[in-house]
Amino acid sequence: MSKVSQHFNEIAINYDAYKSPVNLYYAVLKKAVRQQITHTDIRVLDIGCGTGNILDFLRPKSGVGVDISSSMIKIAKRKFASIPTLKFYVHDIEQKSVRGSFDYILFNDVIEHVINKAATIKNIAASMGKNTVLVLSMANPIWEPVLMLLERLHLKMPEGPHERILESQLISILGKYRLRIISKQIYFPHIRWPFLKDIGLIYVYQIKKFTP
């Protein structure tokens, strides 16, 4: 068992409490995802789905949630057992792709937790069709000291093992697998002054395949 899966197995029982409606970061993230995906007649894959809340929130035609944590998946299966359109599986995206046909793939606040980021993006790309949209979110690395302080004060979910990356690093990895950012939104706060334009906390990208 990896350190990442061990960490999320340990916090799974409290995960929904950490992601409660009073959690401003999580509320903004859900709003951001909803702005990227405005319709429901879709097939969605949620990689790093946790206990399945965002997948349920989107109410897709069909939804598959995968997570490295068996405890998270066990909770998700129990919570949404009455919704036949949602399926949940234990899966390590670093090791292999997910089979299926998807309109959208979600990868929210997960890239910092994978060790081999290139292998992970390669496997995600293999799960994408030519029209699939990858919605990837990550925290702006300049906020890391603040996020860690909030964690020490028990005001946010413990991150566990993680390593944040710069946008330039993300773009470089995406390019290796014929993926390109087609849009970027900045949330919480979104300051429009040019010299402060990158101070936002949450970056949300829409990513698609391209033909060289």
Structurally, the number of domains stands at 1
Care to count the β-strands?
7
Global morphology: globular
Roughly how much helix do the residues carry, as a percent range? 25-40%
Distance between the termini: 39 Å
- Tally of helical runs: 8
Strand/helix succession: HHHEHEHEEHEHHEE
Low-confidence stretches: none
**Largest sheet, described in full?**
7 strands, mixed
Organism: Candidatus Gottesmanbacteria bacterium GW2011_GWB1_43_11
Keywords: Methyltransferase, Transferase
GO molecular function: methyltransferase activity
Protein name: Methyltransferase type 12
Short description:
The chain is an alpha/beta fold and 212 residues long.
Structure description:
- With 212 residues, this protein is of the alpha/beta class.
- It has a single domain (3-209), classed as 3-Layer(aba) Sandwich (Rossmann fold), CATH 3.40.50.150.
- Helices cover 33% and strands 21% of the residues.
- The chain contains 8 helices and 7 strands.
- It has a 7-stranded mixed beta sheet, with helices on both faces.
- β1, α4 (53-58) and β2 (62-67) form a beta-alpha-beta unit.
- The longest helix is centred in the first third of the chain and has 13 residues, at 24-36.
